[in-house]
Amino acid sequence: VCAVMKSINLWKSTIIAPLIVASTAVQVGVYYGPMDRSRSDLIVNYGKAFLEHMPRNSKILVQGDINCHVIRYLQACEQMRPDILYFDQVLMNFPWYEEKQANILKVQGVIFPGKMFGGPPVIKLEKHQYTWEKFLEVNVKKNKREWFNCGGWHFYD
């Protein structure tokens, strides 16, 4: 039995393993070219087109990875439109967001009416949570900047 098992293991390691490596290499060779998006500037062009047409000193509530990350990239790496403030709606759900951003954004006239965004107004919120309605009510009236939404709202927002 041991001799049979050794011959099976030897067969696996000398034939099967190289076949797996070879088939993986063939797949990479065949599909890499058509799937390579390393030179694609579609997302960057989308972000530039979006930011270029925003009024000066706008504020944007952003939702979705593409929308958020392209704006973050363009502002941080290409210094495009530093006058625009954006708020990642997903990150506003975490208590640390307000803690880290409040002092920075207070200078820009932004007020967080609680410690964290609490979700839809149809659920009972904790005292430290706020809704989009409250956030916009406090900030839109106070600020002269225009507010925009990029990435959509849920039906309950």
Automatic annotation (TrEMBL):
TM segment ranges: 15-33
Entry keyword set: Membrane, Transmembrane, Transmembrane helix
Protein known as: Uncharacterized protein
Organism: Hanusia phi
